[in-house]
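for ur thesis appendix - DUF5988 family protein. copy paste whatever u need, i formatted it the way the template wanted (i think)
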Amino acid sequence: MQQNRKALLVGGPGTFDGEVVELTDGVDVKVRIPHASGHEHFTRSEESRLVDGEHLPVFTWSYRTKIAE
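the 3d part is after this line
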């Protein structure tokens, strides 16, 4: 059974900075989010932040990749 949990995205395109996303089990180090014609990549930091009464792990923006055509 997969358990969902939340994380906070920091940095990257303005649309993602400060966004809370749902994570599934097994996602502990990196997150890849489809965006426009590519993917935004976020890496887990050692930081956590309090958001709406929950301590959430922080994933910071690392880089962007484009989808091959």
